[in-house]
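Revision sheet: structure tokens.
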Amino acid sequence: MSLTIGELSRQAQVKIPTIRYYEQIGLLAEPARTEGQQRRYGAAEVRQLNFIRHARELGFEVEAIRQLLDLTRAPERSCGEVHEITRTHLEEVKDKIARLTALRDELEAMVACDHRKISECRIIEVLADHGQCQHAQH
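Predicted:
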């Protein structure tokens, strides 16, 4: 299989600049090139790019993806490190959900404003004084 960057982009559903970026930061290896210096990719790059895309969709940071990709190169190893990376990400997601829930609750309380005058507006008061918020962090 010898794909151009455009064909790889279509198959993996990733934009061309994103592919170049992943090459630049080392998530994807520099591809083979033709005599005319055009990039050429194979099935392995399609699989790897699909892996990266899916990991990004799940919210994994680039460094975690780099670690996970490194671990895939040693298929006989224990997957304990993979679990630890994923557990860490899960805790980050749970923390983010808690902060977003607090943010939602705060905004819902703010929009309960009775729409009288700006000088009496709960939204303006809370924005001006964080101490009036229901939650310390959001």
